[in-house]
Amino acid sequence: MKLNLYATPGACSLSCHIVLEWIGAPYKITYISGSERKESAFRKINPSGAVPVLEADDWVLTQNIAILNFLADSFPDTKLHGDSSAKSRAEVNRALAFASSDLHPAFKPLFGTTAYLDDETSIEKTKTNARTQLRHLFEIVDASLAGKDWITGARSIADPLLYAIARWTKNKGVDVNISDLSNLNRFMTNMDSDAGVQKAMQNEGLEKFHRPDAE
C-alpha cells in the first residue's frame, strides 16, 4: 500500500506523521503551507482545506481520527489500539475525541478565529477565556496521566494527537507549568525522547517540547 500524508509542519497532522513512523511502513510526506491549503489545487483533494489528508493508493481519507484509526487497523501488529478489545478501543477513541473535540477547538481563538469581531478588547477577552479553558482541560489530562506513561495506559494512536496539540501551549501562552502539571510534562518529555517522534519532528523542522537549553 502506497501511503502519502499531506501535512503542515507543527499542525495536528504531526500525530499521523508520528504514527507512520511507529508503523514502520514506507510513506511519503507532502508538506502544505497554510496559504496553500486555501488554494484550489489542495481544495480538490480536501474541500475543507484542512490537514491531515492521507492517500492510500488511489483512496483519499480526511479527518485526523479517521486516519489514525485506519493506520492502526491496517497495521494491527503495532497494537496502537491497545489490546484491541472493545473496551481498549473505546478508551483510545475516548482519548482521541477529547483531544479533537475539546482541546483542539479550545485553541481556535488563539489562532485568530475571533478576529472577525474587529474589536481588540473583545478579541483579547476570547483569548483570555481560551487560555483559562485550556488550563482546565490540561488539568484533566494531567489527572488522567497519573501513574501512566500513555494516556490510555498502553501506547496508542491517541498519544501522538495529545502530544501534537499540547505542543501549541508553548507559543500560545497557555500555562502548563511543570511543577503543577507534572504528569503531563512527564508524558511530553517521554514523547520527546521517542525515536519515531524525534524522526517526525526532525522531518518537520520542529524542536522538542522540553529543550534542556531552554530550561
UniProtKB/TrEMBL annotation:
Q: List each copy of the GST N-terminal domain by range.
A: 1-79
Q: Which InterPro entries match?
A: Glutathione-S-Trfase_C-like (IPR010987), Glutathione-S-Trfase_C_sf (IPR036282), Glutathione_S-Trfase (IPR040079), Glutathione_S-Trfase_N (IPR004045), GST_C (IPR004046), Thioredoxin-like_sf (IPR036249)
Q: Which UniProt keywords apply?
A: Transferase
Q: Where is the GST C-terminal domain?
A: 85-215
- A Pfam family of the record is GST_N
Which Gene3D superfamilies does this entry report, sorted A to Z? Answer: 1.20.1050.10, Glutaredoxin
Q: Does the keyword Nuclease apply?
A: no
Spell out the molecular function terms from Gene Ontology: transferase activity
Checking PANTHER family in the record gives: GLUTATHIONE S-TRANSFERASE GSTA, GLUTATHIONE S-TRANSFERASE-RELATED
For this chain, the family text in UniProt reads: Belongs to the GST superfamily.
Q: What is the protein name for this chain?
A: Glutathione S-transferase
- Protein's organism: Advenella kashmirensis W13003
